[in-house]
Structures are given as structure tokens and as C-alpha cells.
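FAQ: What does a multi-protein file look like?

Like this. Sequence, then C-alpha cells, then the next protein.
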Amino acid sequence: MNKPVQPMSSLSLKLPKADRSIETYRLAASRTFPAKLEGPLNRIAFSAVHTVVDPFADNDPWLSVAVDWDKTIAFREHVWDLGLGVAEAMDTAQRGMGLDWPTSLELITRSVAAAKRRNALVFSGAGTDHLAVEDAKNLDDVIHAYEEQISAVEKVGGRIILMASRALAKLGRGADDYAKVYNRVLSQVREPVIIHWLGDMFDPALAGYWGTKDLAKAMDVAVAIINHNAAKVDGVKVSLLDKQREIDMRRRLDRRIKMYTGDDFNYAELIAGDEQGFSHALLGIFDAIAPAASYALSRLAAGDEAGFHDVLGPTVPLSRHIFKAPTRFYKTGVVFMAYLNGHQDHFTMVGGQESTRSTLHLAELFRLADKAGLLADPELATQRMKTVLATHGIEP
């Protein structure tokens, strides 16, 4: 049961503000959420999960990645305990931002094996990122790259999330080019896949995806291709941070195809839905707020929509902060939350990406996480926030 605990009136710390002043911030009364799923869910919900690095590895973080496999898989087990699925080796894991294909495949292999041991849900990203964009000369190169990754994921028993391709964004000139690639690739998959439409706010190299920068025309192309391949498509994840476009697309999809919201600004209302339908979820923010997301979804399944919004609504300001522009740096906030909540013992990231957000950004993240009741252990979170502030020259 979700219930408030006594106010942490003795916990406070000094946090920087935008006007360069320092405030003494006193933590709010926290909330506790179940560590395991309570009751069945009536939405499918994936958390796109982060990668935990090994801070003791003697490597060059900008050039190579060293993964702490035990901590990485332990975090996935935490997500599965809460009844959520894992979206593996996706943008949140820093795919294309430091996590290369060989490491991604090892991550997928380990995650799929761990999921099978407990009959848990995991889908994994297959794309074309091992093909350097400058080396992609024609559409057949893109198709072959997709085929290679799909084959590798299926060989280890994985289900596919078909990621957007930077190489296709470079070469695709219109609807026919995208239809050629997707029709060929989808015709070969063993099981229905999730199509991922990632907006250029998450990855600038994907500008003009589906062959046009006109989003209305792009949606026409995407819907036509996806509906044509409905038997091979489990669902579509849309990450455009535009709730109306998602709703419009959801209503145009073949009835066999699920919509998985990727809108980290408006997920609560999109998951709740309306009289014409709802979205399932595949969200990076569910990495940072997994216990609250699980409990909120259980309340929705129980018919308690007010309880769903009571829990999930306060998480939205935090998510909007974490995913603020430049949105592609949202991974820093996700990993910082994992550090604050004790899922890893350091604030170190793939590619040194812990440096992509300012101290002010992290301080505001702490405030918003506290207000949403998302600090699992307020004393631990406070001490870790103080440590980070001290490393940035701010006396806590």
C-alpha cells in the first residue's frame, strides 16, 4: 500500500538557485511505494533502462565503455519486480551516444537470459548503428545492416524494437525509399516488432525521418507503411513530445497495432486515455520513476483513476525537467536518479555524459524528485546530493 511517512523535518541541504544564491532546502514529507507489483495491470508498460558503467575501469570513457554487468542486470530485475517490461539497449542505455553495437549485443544477450530465468518481458533495440552513416551508400546497405542486427537479437532469443536509422535518414528521399526498407526488413522478422519513431529532439541526425520534415506528411508515410505490415508489428512507440500527434496516429493505426507512448512530457494523460482509446507505455522516465509508475498503473487497473493521477501526476514536472532541451541529454537525469536512489554507487556514465547537465539542473531535479515523493531513502539521497555539490565547489 502507498502511504505517506513522517516528514523528514531534520533533513535539509543547501542548494544553488538560478540567481546564484544558495537556499537551505528542507525535504518534504516523502511517500513510499511497493517494491513489487501490486495486482494485475491493464496497460503494457516498458521502462527503457540505463546502463551502469564500471567506475574503476581503466578506459577512456569518450572512446570505449566498460559496463558493470552485475549492477546493470540488477537494475533490470528491479524493474521486472515492479511488473514493468524492459526496453533494452535503447536510447536511454545511450545507444548511439557511447554504447556501441558489440556492447549493446552483449547487453541484450545478458538481459534476455536474465528475463528468461524469471519469465519477464524484454524487447531489445535492433538498428543500423554499426554502419557508419558516411559508409552507407545505398538503401541495400541500410537493409543489410538491419538484417544483421535483427538476426543477432533473434539468435539469442530476443524480441525486436526496430529503431530508427541515421543511415536511412541520410539516404531516404521519400515514401518509396522508406517503404522499400521497412517492407523488406519486416517481411523477415520472426515475431511482431515494435516500431520506434524517434524525433530529432532526441537525435538531431534523425531530422526528416520518413522522407520529409513536414510532420503531418511524415505521419502519413509512417501510418501507411506500418498498417501495410500490421501482421508483423506489435506496436509503435512515438517519441515526438507532441501528445496530439500521438493521439491522431493512435486512432489511425490498424486495430491490431498497439500505441506505446514515448511522450515523456504527457505520459500520464496518454496512458489514462479517453473514450476512444489509450496508449501503452515505453518510456525512459519509467527508469527513474519505476516504483511510482508501477503503483500508479496498478491503481488504474483497479479502477482508481484518481489514485493513478495522484501518484503519476506529480512525476510529470520532474520528467519535463529531465527531458528539457537539449532533450538528448536526458540520460544524465535518469542516471542521477538511479544514483540518488541507491541503484548504483557512483554518478558516472557511458561516454562521460554525467557532464551534460549543469549543477543547477541537478539541484532542481533533486527538488522535483523530492516533491514527487521519489527519493526512496531521503537520508541517502541527501548525502549523495551533498557529495555531488561538493565536487562542483558548492559547500553543502
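And here is the next protein:
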Amino acid sequence: MTVYIDPPTWPGHGRLWSHLVSDVSYAELHAFAEALGVPRRAFERDHYDLPARRYADAVSAGALEVSSREVVRLLHGAGLRRRKGASRSAAPDAQRRSS
């Protein structure tokens, strides 16, 4: 299982945030996040938002540190990128990708 995390540079709600992604499937991403204790409500379209204070936890659990640009490239390359406003029905079949 390989998931990726970018540096906590995204501001929001008075904090800085990282993005946690998979380049294989949403199922893989959800499993990693669950094992890390990240609530499902932190999932947004194609990634989890993690506050800066959880960055080291994700890396210790096995997330690979990459740039924000690399996060987007990985999502596009895997066919898992979901843009704002995209319908869920247009999203890739996560179950197909995880098998």
C-alpha cells in the first residue's frame, strides 16, 4: 500500500493542511486513512485533508512525502482526479481499480 502526502501549505480554517492521496484506488486511500484514525468527513472528492499536526503521523505510517504538484500528477496518472463540480457518476470505479 502506497499513499502520498504533500507538505502542509494549504490554508483553511486557521490552519495549514496537507493532501493525502493514493495512486491506486480510493479503497486503498480510505483504508490508510482509517488505520491512521482520520475521519471519513476529511475526504474531499479525491483526497483527504490532514491538518499540519497530523503530517508526521501520516509519514510515520508510511505515506510518501511529495510536492503538491506531484499529488496532482499522481491523481491524474491514476485516473482518480475529481475536479470541483464533477459528478460522482463520472468518477472512476474505485472497486475496479483496487482489484
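Q: Is there any per-entry metadata?
A: Some entries carry free-text notes. For the entry above: The helical segments are 26-36, 55-60, 68-78, 94-98.
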